[in-house]
């Protein structure tokens, strides 16, 4: 039986071309008009170590990396050792043999395809062609369109010259011959090509960079940190084309300080970091709250605390993002579900910072950072850009003027008669320091009240399903994509389940949470952290009594994990 | 500072005073430094709407409140990077950072090298009184070990740093030192710093009559020596030799070093030029790079 929704996992030693193999297959499928969702893990080591790349492809929309793979291609013995417990009856297993560094035991029911990748590459006198041989074999075994794969390879290698291109294509063809010589005994095949769609294939981090470009960003200050650095690379490459600049600061404290300074001076500014960097930025984010300066940052979460699991997936910065400052420091926290959100919500976050004149934190995560997905090609004209409210030049300028909506007009330096101070001290409407009780109380009220309306103004929380349900799943970040599939599959089995997918994490849209929970007998909150951080906020801010469901093994949820949990509590 | 911000207006030193009353103790050297800043701004004719005065935390970091200009009063130790962001955002405006020895060289010490080596086009005036004044008298990175202070009741356990050597080593392109008791010299050095294109650093010795009872006006008068005429300000070696102090331990006052080097904003602008960047660039070209 043919199966259209297919998951192929390729694994081996870092540096063997695992990542490029995955990228080529993903691009070829996207070119063939299919949807793609990739997932990869790579070592924290500088060179070598275990690397894994998984491509899920289907003609239908894909929301997550899937339960497990259907096809596994092992480049070396370590890759086999790491994954052998996942080889199940029906799994297709392609491996480097003979001539590789291992001879696997084939579990019962696993369909084995030995392909002498290393040996063939050695015969061609280029170890680097090993992944081309593998790709050729995979192409014929699993119906990955040869035409689009070759187009992708040609695009990649033609820059390096005719000789290199032809050599790689030859290696690919050798792999194809090896694949053709094997007896196909499994049902797995990539869906046939359809009409190409108007899509791009992009990773979460690159998408956040693209969102910054589309959002009218003018200044970016970066400090390198895994897994966020690709955002800075993307912006450094493309922002100068629009006349803006990225600079690399001496540390994260300096990055956020430069962002604050540039924003004060009138530029739309941001930075990107991960948990350790965000921890260092906490004091300056408080300054941005107090001085009402628009600043935006992307936090690509990783396993923590401390150095933690730098390259692994976790959703554990919600506490830090919402409350990581001294004093009462209002901020707005958003979180993305998928790669498309990484573009759209980076634009939103830049807009919201300008509109509400406060820090805005956009949370992404480690698996999304490197996951490439097919998404509709963004149309720049479809994005509405918001700029800060400016002083009209009338009367005497007061930087912290109390207004009906709490938003005080700003003025750019260089404007005559607009001189004022941005200060971290408590102050009056003019910015003059004041430690009087009425100043602190009225300014606190101003700073908190001005962000309240976002609860109603920002897009309503998406509710997946109608009517009453036995179990309602509330989740956030990239775990939403897993919940979507779990809810659909459970519903197809006849269970009454619903989903609730917030993107605005703080301030919390409490009324929406409450009305959702009112339709569900039980509320399950799956999230990838130890403490159940969203569950904590739900208990603190609403009357809901959620059932936390937490994992923290450095990997995202799978749909089947969530399905089993729902069945357990239903 | 930016040349565009210079020679615009005809204002007297008092015209740069803000409406906020100065809060420093009587007898503090900072009064003299502030007057030197007013005088330098007046002599250069800086339009105050084109000036961004930025500080961190400390007695000297209150300075922006007393200057009529755009200004930011930021976090302890962070004036430098905030000012760097502001300067890069608006390279057409003048940026003046003021702060103390604790703010600049202790908590903010990690930023100093990078402003200097990147040659950020701004002026940093560091009020060096060898003490934390705002927190009522603790030992600072420029305190002498003899100083018995709030947290060092038996004297200090470590050697003071040499701010001039530090800034010269990291590549500041204008390095000078003054003494608050000689306001005319201070005004000249600050004026030169504001006129200089690149990162200009002026270290100014100041007495703190309230908390530092050993670095008195009399002590500084004995300590400082004006740099002799004929000193080659383009020689890093000669500047370092002066900064090391002479055999009797005298500290130089005057201009030690001044050279020209491309500034950070100029270098960033070059990158934009290199890629032919402009605000009207068609972003569709960037998006299409992500097609499969």
**What is the architecture of chain B at the second tier of CATH?**
3-Layer(aba) Sandwich
CATH superfamily of the largest domain in chain A: Thiamin diphosphate (ThDP)-binding fold, Pyr/PP domains
Give me the CATH fold name of the largest domain in chain A. Rossmann fold
Give the helix tally of chain B.
10
**Structural class by sheet pairing and helices of chain B:** alpha/beta
Give the radius of gyration of chain A: 26 Å
Distance between the termini of chain A: 33 Å
Number of domains of chain B: 1
Radius of gyration of chain B: 20 Å
Structural class of chain A: alpha/beta
Greatest interface (CB-CB under 8 A), with counts per chain? A-B, 67 and 53 residues
Task: Tell me about this structure.
The complex is a heterodimer of chains A (570) and B (292). In chain A, the strands form four sheets. A seven-stranded mixed β-sheet of chain A has the order 9-8-10-11-13-12-19, with helices on both faces. A six-stranded mixed β-sheet of chain A has the order 2-3-1-4-5-6. In chain A, strands 16-18-17-20-21 form a five-stranded mixed β-sheet, with helices on both faces. Chain A has 19 helices and 21 strands. The model of chain A has no long low-confidence stretch (mean pLDDT 95). In chain A, helix 1 (18-31) packs across helix 5, helix 5 (146-157) packs antiparallel against helix 6 and helix 7 packs across helix 8 (229-238). The longest helix of chain A is centred in the first third of the chain and has 19 residues, at 162-180. Chain A is of the alpha/beta class. Chain B has a single domain (3-262), classed as Rossmann fold. In chain B, 32% of the residues lie in helices and 15% in strands. Chain B contains ten helices and eight strands. In chain B, helix 1 (30-44) crosses helix 6 (183-195). Chain B is globular and about 70 Å long. The model of chain B has no long low-confidence stretch (mean pLDDT 96). At the A-B interface, helix 1, strand 7, helix 7, helix 9 and helix 10 of A face strand 2, helix 2, helix 9 and helix 10 of B.
């Amino acid at each position: 039986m043919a199966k259209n929704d297919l998951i192929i996992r390729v694994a081996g030693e870092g540096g063997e071309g695992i990542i490029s193999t995955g990228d080529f297959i993903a691009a070829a499928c996207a070119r063939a008009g299919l949807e793609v969702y990739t997932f990869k893990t790579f070592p924290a080591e500088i060179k070598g170590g275990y690397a894994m790349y998984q491509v899920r492809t289907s003609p239908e929309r894909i929301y997550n990396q899937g339960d497990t793979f259907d096809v596994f291609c092992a480049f070396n013995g370590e890759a086999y050792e790491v994954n052998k417990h996942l080889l199940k009856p029906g799994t297709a297993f392609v491996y480097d043999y003979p001539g590789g560094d291992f001879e696997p035991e084939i579990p019962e029911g696993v369909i084995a395809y030995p392909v002498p990748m290393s040996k063939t590459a050695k015969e061609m006198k280029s170890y680097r062609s090993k992944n081309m041989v593998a790709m050729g074999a995979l192409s014929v075994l699993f119906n990955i369109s040869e035409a689009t794969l070759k187009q992708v390879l040609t695009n990649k290698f033609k820059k390096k010259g005719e000789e290199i291109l032809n050599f790689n294509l030859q290696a690919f063809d050798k792999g194809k011959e090896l694949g053709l010589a094997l007896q196909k005994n499994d049902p797995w095949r990539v869906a046939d090509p359809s009409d190409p769609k108007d899509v791009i294939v992009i990773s979460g981090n690159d998408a956040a960079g693209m969102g910054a470009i589309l959002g009218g960003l003018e200044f970016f200050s970066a400090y390198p940190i895994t897994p966020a650095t690709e955002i800075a690379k993307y912006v450094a490459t493309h922002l100068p084309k629009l006349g803006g600049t990225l600079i690399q600061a001496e540390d994260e404290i300096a990055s956020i300080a430069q962002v604050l300074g540039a924003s004060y001076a009138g530029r739309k500014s941001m930075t990107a970091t991960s948990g350790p960097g965000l921890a260092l930025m906490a004091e300056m984010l408080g300054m941005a709250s107090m001085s009402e300066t628009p600043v935006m940052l992307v936090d690509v979460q990783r396993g923590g605390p401390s150095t933690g699991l730098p390259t692994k997936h976790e959703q554990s910065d919600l506490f830090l993002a919402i409350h990581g400052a001294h004093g009462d420091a209002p901020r707005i926290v958003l979180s993305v579900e998928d790669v498309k959100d990484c573009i759209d919500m980076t634009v939103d976050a830049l807009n919201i910072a300008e509109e509400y004149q406060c820090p805005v934190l956009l949370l992404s995560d480690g698996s999304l950072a490197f996951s490439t997905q097919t998404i509709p090609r963004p149309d720049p004209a479809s994005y509405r850009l918001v700029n800060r409210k400016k002083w009209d030049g009338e009367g005497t300028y007061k930087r912290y003027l109390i207004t009906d909506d709490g938003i005080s007009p700003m003025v750019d330096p260089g404007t005559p008669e607009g001189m004022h101070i941005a200060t971290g001290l408590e102050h009056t409407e003019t910015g003059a320091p004041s430690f009087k009780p009425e100043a602190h109380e009225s300014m606190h009220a101003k700073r908190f009240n001005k962000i309240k309306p976002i609860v109603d103004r920002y897009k309503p929380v998406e509710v997946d399903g109608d009517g009453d349900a036995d179990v309602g799943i509330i989740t956030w970040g990239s775990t939403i994509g897993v919940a979507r599939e779990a809810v659909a599959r459970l519903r197809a089995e006849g269970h009454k389940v619903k989903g609730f997918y917030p993107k605005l994490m703080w301030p919390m849209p409490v009324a929406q949470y409450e009305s959702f929970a009112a339709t569900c007998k039980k509320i399950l909150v799956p999230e990838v952290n130890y403490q159940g951080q969203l569950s904590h906020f739900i208990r603190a801010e609403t009357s809901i009594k959620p059932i936390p469901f937490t994992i923290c093994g450095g990997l995202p949820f799978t749909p089947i994990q969530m399905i089993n949990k729902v069945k357990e509590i239903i | 500072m930016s040349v565009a911000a210079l020679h615009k207006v005809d204002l007297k030193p008092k015209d740069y005073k803000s409406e906020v009353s100065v809060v420093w103790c009587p007898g503090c050297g900072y009064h003299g430094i502030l007057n030197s800043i007013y005088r330098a701004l007046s002599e250069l004719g800086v339009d105050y709407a084109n000036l961004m005065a930025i500080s961190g935390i400390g007695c000297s970091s209150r300075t922006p409140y007393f200057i009529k200009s755009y200004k930011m009063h930021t976090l302890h130790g962070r004036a430098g990077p905030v000012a760097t962001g502001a300067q890069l955002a608006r390279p057409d405006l003048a940026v003046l950072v003021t702060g103390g020895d604790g703010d600049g060289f202790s908590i903010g010490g990690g930023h100093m090298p990078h402003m200097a080596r990147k040659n950020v086009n701004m002026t940093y005036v560091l009020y060096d009184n060898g003490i934390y004044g705002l927190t009522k008298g603790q030992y600072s990175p420029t305190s002498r070990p003899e100083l018995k202070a709030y947290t060092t009741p038996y004297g200090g356990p470590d050697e003071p740093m040499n701010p001039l050597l530090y800034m010269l080593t990291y590549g500041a392109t204008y390095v000078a030192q003054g003494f608050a008791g000689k306001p005319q010299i201070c005004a000249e050095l600050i004026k030169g710093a504001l006129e200089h294109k690149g990162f200009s650093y002026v270290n100014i010795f100041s007495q703190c009559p309230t908390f530092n009872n050993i670095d008195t006006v009399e002590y500084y008068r004995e300590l400082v020596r004006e740099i002799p005429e004929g000193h080659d300000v383009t020689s890093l070696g000669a500047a370092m030799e002066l900064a090391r102090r002479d055999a009797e331990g005298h500290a130089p006052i005057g201009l030690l070093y001044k050279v020209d080097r491309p500034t950070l904003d100029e270098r960033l602008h070059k990158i934009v030029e290199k890629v032919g960047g402009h605000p009207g660039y068609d972003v569709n070209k960037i998006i299409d790079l992500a097609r499969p």
